[in-house]
Specification:
- Among the domains are: about 80 residues; about 90 residues, no CATH class.
- The C terminus is likely disordered.
- The chain is elongated and about 120 Å long.
- The chain is an alpha+beta fold.
- It starts with 7 loop residues before the first helix and ends with a strand.
């Protein structure tokens, strides 16, 4: 009895179909991904080179993004500095004009002074509010990056570095000797309510700002006006509880505080501290 155990022609046909199916799958994968090398079996050495080039491309693309972001930061700061430069030129022109006292009346000189005060307030406002992604750019906070130890933090609450020489080092250690505790600048107002309109220039550790007060403004109104610009000036005001008609004006942090009256008024501010 004869048996047929194999069918050579069918096996050959099945093998050829399998090869064709594998080639078709590879072609479809390359068409869908757009890549000639999709796995290590396609080309091991080529895959290694491809991955290396891919890492380099990713690094270059991120470097380009970083450069674009840095360019945006510089553009933001440059625009703000351009506005400040224009305001400073305006102030210089007004100061030069004010020197001509023989041809200008007192009213014109006062108007120029108010314009100068407004320009200076605008400069402080621009420097305090120019930010990029929440970081302030031109208020001086990015001058130096500093850190202190836990032991020093308990002794030194605040400090400012205006200039440092690094040489070839990326960082340097500094030592500070505290001879006396810093004091807050403080002023006291005891004039009561205003009988006429007045303009005050408030200046502190953060900057200066001009506030306008109408006739009849109470001590509480003066306090609210000064506190309304405390985020720009760093100056805070409070009514003295033992003397409701008096007002204390002080710097929020250590440093000097100044409140000047740019228009005539019967009230005066006297220095109560340094």
């Amino acid at each position: 009895m004869t048996r047929i155990n194999t069918n050579v022609q069918s096996l050959r046909a099945l093998r050829n179909v399998g090869k064709a199916n594998n080639l078709l799958s590879t072609s479809l994968q390359r068409l869908s991904t757009g890549l000639k090398i999709n796995s290590g079996k396609d080309n091991p050495s080529g895959l290694i080179a491809s991955e290396t080039l891919g890492l380099q491309v990713t690094t270059i693309e991120q470097s380009i993004k970083n450069s674009n972001r840095a360019n945006n930061v510089i553009s933001t700061a440059d625009s703000a500095l351009g506005e400040i430069g224009g305001l400073l030129n305006q102030v210089r022109g007004l100061v030069q004009e004010g020197l001509n006292t023989g041809a200008l009346s007192d009213t014109e000189i006062d108007a120029n002074q108010q314009q100068i005060d407004a320009a200076l307030s605008a400069i402080n406002r621009i420097s305090a509010n120019t930010t990029f992604a929440g970081d302030k750019l031109i208020d001086g906070s990015k001058a130096f990056t500093t850190s202190k130890t836990v032991a020093d933090a308990a002794k030194l609450s605040d400090y400012q570095i205006n200039e440092a020489i690094f040489g070839t080092a990326s960082s340097i250690d500094i030592s500070a000797q505290v001879t006396a505790a810093a004091q807050k600048g403080e002023l006291r107002y005891s004039g009561g309510a205003l009988s006429s309109a007045s303009t005050l220039q408030v200046a502190g550790a953060r900057g200066s700002q001009v506030v306008f007060l109408g006739s009849g403004s109470s001590v509480a109104n003066i306090r609210d006006a000064i506190n309304g610009v405390s985020d720009v000036t760093g100056v805070e005001a409070s009514v003295i509880s033992s003397a409701p008609g008096e007002l204390t004006v002080s710097n929020a942090t250590a440093g000097s505080a100044f409140v000047g009256n740019t228009q005539a008024a019967e009230a005066t501010l006297t220095t109560a501290g340094t």
